[in-house]
């Protein structure tokens, strides 16, 4: 999350405000700082660690933009309203990155109904609630960028990740449908479906698992957060206005 990588970036998002859900760590944190580097004010969202969220806020502020941290469970409607109020304090959101989510690695026959619903809530319902909340202002302005974070498993399905794959696949379907619904309003809706990205989400894997996974990736390496950041910056930019309802999948050829 080094700010030095972002200081010389063209500030094409200057004056805009971005909400990045689930941005206290990992890909979300990298996206928040990158958007700040492009000039956007950033609402950093977290559910558990205020300390980590404040680190991201400070990294954003060091790039000469405004940034606040907001504790909110974006699977809950009341918490989403709190998040929107924070964005309104920065001028209202032109960019929404629906990044918040949880995983579940478990055989389907061992998955409880509660676990399944929780995965859907944090990965899918959160996208619905946040998108619905930002759309009135975006449509009134005639401009907006909604970017939904899915997963390569949303495209191909992942063994022992049925709930997660189902949720992320539904995010892709929602992306395509909503993109058509709001296309004439100046709001674009796209998705990013990363493959295996080297973050703490891979920490449960041991060295042998990582080596086996890497062997399965045609380019021969795990992805880096920078691979996801570049896709997000394009989709968040004014130049992406003719791109909507699309899925960008930085996955190293794991799924084609």
Write the CATH homologous superfamily: NAD(P)-binding Rossmann-like Domain
Q: What is the succession of H and E elements?
A: EHEHEHEHEHHEHHE
Gap between N and C termini: 29 Å
Strand count, sense and barrel status of the largest sheet are: 7 strands, parallel
Number of domains: 1
* Beta-strand percent range: 5-15%
Given helix and strand content, the structural type is alpha/beta
What would you report as the Rg, rounded to the nearest angstrom? Answer: 17 Å
General description of the model:
This protein is of the alpha/beta class. It has one domain (3-248): Rossmann fold (3-Layer(aba) Sandwich), CATH 3.40.50.720. 44% of the residues lie in helices and 13% in strands. The chain has helices at 26-37, 50-61, 77-89, 113-141, 152-156, 162-182, 207-215, 225-236; strands spanning 17-20, 41-46, 67-71, 95-98, 144-149, 187-192, 247-248. A 7-stranded parallel beta sheet has the order 3-2-1-4-5-6-7, with helices on both faces. α1 (26-37) packs parallel to α2 and α1 packs across α8 (225-236). The mean pLDDT is 95.
What brief labels describe this structure?
single chain; 256 residues; alpha/beta; Rossmann fold; 8 helices; 7 strands
Brief account:
The protein has 256 residues and is of the alpha/beta class. The chain contains 8 helices and 7 strands, in the order E-H-E-H-E-H-E-H-E-H-H-E-H-H-E.
List the helices and strands and how they pair.
Blueprint (H helix, E strand, L loop, with lengths): L16 E4 L5 H12 L3 E6 L3 H12 L5 E5 L5 H13 L5 E4 L14 H29 L2 E6 L2 H5 L5 H21 L4 E6 L14 H9 L9 H12 L10 E2 L8
Parallel strand pairs: 1-2, 1-4, 2-3, 4-5, 5-6, 6-7
Helix pairs in contact: 1-2, 1-8, 3-4, 4-6
